[in-house]
Design a protein that fits this description.
It is a single chain. Helices cover 25% and strands 29% of the residues. The chain contains 4 helices and 10 strands, in the order βαβαβββαβββββα. Strand 9 (176-179) and strand 10 (182-185) form a beta hairpin. The chain is globular, with a radius of gyration of 23 Å. Residues 13-32 have low confidence and may be disordered.
């Protein structure tokens, strides 16, 4: 006896029309995507990120000394060094003008010579600051050097990072600053929150 024919497929539900996609700029690879939201980092979340980052680093690298890039990279750098129970030092890199090239204003310690080094910053976008730090450390002949950031935000790929995001990041240690004797929200944070509707 022949098998009964299979039942007909259920009717397809019409899909709602999709909004048109904005064309990507031609140089999209070379520029960071515009933030599509705000990531407000509080101290407990920052602590969890540092613990996760330290564990990733320990499993794959286990440095002898951690170098934090001042100013903001010193904070995750010191926490990661403390969790790893490793020596910590800092170096200072700044931009003399907004959008300008970074420059080293205080180089790394000679403690890095012949040792396994980890350079830490809070974020990296183009990698210009991290590349400058890497060159400065390599001049002192470390045994090895790797990089880590709390937030990967652009095309540069550090060896380790806790979180990758396209959001605008508000950090807990400089959310509020003193201006004219008053503690206020950092002006660029306030402006970005207003711009993004936060």
């Amino acid at each position: 006896m022949p098998a009964p024919p299979p039942p007909p497929p259920p009717p397809r539900t019409p899909q709602p029309p999709q909004p048109p996609q904005a064309p990507r700029p031609r140089n999209a690879r070379a520029t960071r995507k515009a933030p599509h939201g705000v990531l407000e980092v509080d101290w407990p979340f920052f602590g969890e990120m540092c613990r996760a980052l330290a564990l990733k680093i320990f499993r794959d690298y286990d440095p002898d000394v951690v170098i934090g890039i001042a100013r903001a990279g010193v904070i995750p750098g010191a926490v990661v060094a403390s969790i790893l129970q490793r020596d910590f030092a800092s170096m200072a890199i700044t931009r003399t003008e907004t959008g300008g090239r970074p420059v080293v204003i205080a180089g790394p310690t000679r403690l890095v010579t012949g040792r396994r080094v980890l350079i830490v910053d809070e974020t990296c976008d183009t990698g210009a600051t991290m590349k400058l730090a890497l060159n400065a450390v390599r001049e002192l002949k470390p045994a090895a050097v790797k990089t880590a950031v709390s937030f990967r935000t652009g095309e540069f790929r550090p060896d380790f990072y806790a979180l990758e995001t396209d959001n605008f990041i508000i950090l807990p240690w400089d959310r509020e600053v003193i201006i004219d004797g008053e503690i206020v929200m950092r002006p660029d944070y306030a402006a970005k929150l207003k711009e993004l509707g936060g």
